[in-house]
Amino acid sequence: MKIAVINPNTTASMTATIADAARRVAHDGTEILAITSSMGPVSIEGYYDEVFAVPGLLVEIVKAEREGADAIVIACFDDTGLDAARALAGIPVIGICEAALSATSFIAQRFSVVTTMERSRLPVEHLVHRYGMGSRCKVRAADVPVLSLEDPNSNARDRLRSEISAALKDDRAEAIVLGCAGMADLTASLRQEFGVPVIDGVAAAVKQAESLVAQGLSTAKRGAYASPVHKAYGGELARFAPQAMEA
């Protein structure tokens, strides 16, 4: 089985962190294809970045499927481009936010997502409600830029720990969901430090992708996720016309 784990931003070092988290939980027979988008923002922090990350993501999805991937994981907690990706792809596509919330719902009644910036908190909060978890889950922002998580001289990890402490005390959270793929390498240490389940969306998504492939399931191709209608796209977006992407 091949699972393509795609980082929709263009920071290769973050892809390496994501790949390590995916490979730690993957079955022995699963090959993880870790992919960095070739175009778009270096990090995704808010709606504007998200929009411009989608074209590069879709290009990589088409490539991965052509190269034999059995499923796709979109490794951004905004579930960047998820609906468009499911319409385009002929294989299962999993977003790490949806995967993490689903996994956590099996093991905790109340839980909190701790994400990066305040501008990222609101999009994640909208996803929490979309996925039906609004009555069980609160979303917090540690007010740290995504790329600062990779800087050992920043105070990003201390701020993250402080926000987790607040979630456990003030939200009465029973589990913590890490709201950024760049936090994936912190899961084990945070579980040990706080003594509660800490859920990484990359790991959760990989296991759910494996399950769907093992069951022979893929995305429904009628209704919302029907394949895109062939039509002309103008200007610089001509290459993204559905018929061009399928060629």
From TrEMBL:
Signal peptide limits: none
Q: Which reaction does it catalyse?
A: D-5-benzylhydantoin = L-5-benzylhydantoin; a D-5-monosubstituted hydantoin = a L-5-monosubstituted hydantoin; D-5-isobutylhydantoin = L-5-isobutylhydantoin
Give UniProt keywords alphabetically. Answer: Isomerase
Enzyme Commission code(s) on record? 5.1.99.5
Q: List the InterPro entries.
A: Asp/Glu/hydantoin_racemase, Hydantoin_racemase-like, Iso_Racemase_Enz_sf
Query: Does Cell wall biogenesis/degradation appear among the keywords?
Result: no
Tell me one GO molecular function of this protein.
hydantoin racemase activity
Family statement drawn from the similarity comment of this UniProt entry: Belongs to the HyuE racemase family.
Q: What is this protein called?
A: Hydantoin racemase
Q: Which organism is it from?
A: Rhizobium rosettiformans
